Amino acid sequence: MIASKQLRLSRRSNELAQAVPQVVTLRVGRMMRAGLFPVGHDQQEMYRMGAEKIEAFHESWMAMATQTMVAQQQFGLWCMQTWWKLALGGWMNPPTMTAMSSRASKALMNSMLDVTARGMTPVHRRAVANARRLTKAETRKRG
Fold first, then answer.
1. Residue/partner pairs of 16-20 with CB below 8 Å, 24 or more apart
2. Domain range for residue 128?
3. How far, in Å, CA of 62 to CA of 56, rounded?
4. What secondary structure letter does DSSP report for 94?
5. Cα of 134 vs its chain's centroid, Å
6. Tens digit of pLDDT for each residue in 20-68?
């Protein structure tokens, strides 16, 4: 399960690493062509550029905060279950500390991947969509 989350996060990171420079290149080129006094679509694109960053940051922050709270609740539940198992007869046949810490570290890694993925989703979605949209607009201008 952790490996599939790592693979998915790696794939999204790669897509983001390809989309961001493309969007920056297209937008900077558009700003240079617009000159000192942009009009119409160029003004809208420049406004959109700033507004999207704020929206993506907010969505990302909220998604990570929410997922962090979920992870904390899951970890608290795990601690209570572990304590309960030890309290109800676990003292006669206690689990090894290695097994307990292994489960805890897997759960921690799993929750960190979830938080990271949730935070990256809004940024990834916008960057990839902008790369597609701006590339289409650029090819229409040339064609």
1. 16/120, 16/123, 16/124, 16/127, 16/128, 18/131, 19/124, 19/127, 19/128, 19/130, 19/131, 20/127
2. 2-142
3. 10
4. P
5. 22
6. 999 999 999 989 998 888 888 889 988 999 999 999 999 999 999 999 9
Q: Where are the alpha helices (DSSP H) in the chain?
A: 2-34, 41-85, 97-142
Render 98-111 in DSSP notation, one character per residue. Answer: HHHHHHHHHHHHHH
Report how far residue 37's alpha carbon sits from residue 46's, in angstroms, rounded to the nearest whole number: 12
- State how far the Cα of 16 lies from the Cα of 38, in Å rounded to an integer: 28
pLDDT in tens, 107-120: 889 999 999 999 99
Integer-rounded Cα radius of gyration of the chain:
23
Residue 122's pLDDT is 96
Question: Which phi-psi region, left, alpha or beta, contains residue 72 (left: φ > 0; alpha: ψ -120 to 50)?
Answer: alpha
Tally of structural domains, the chain = 1
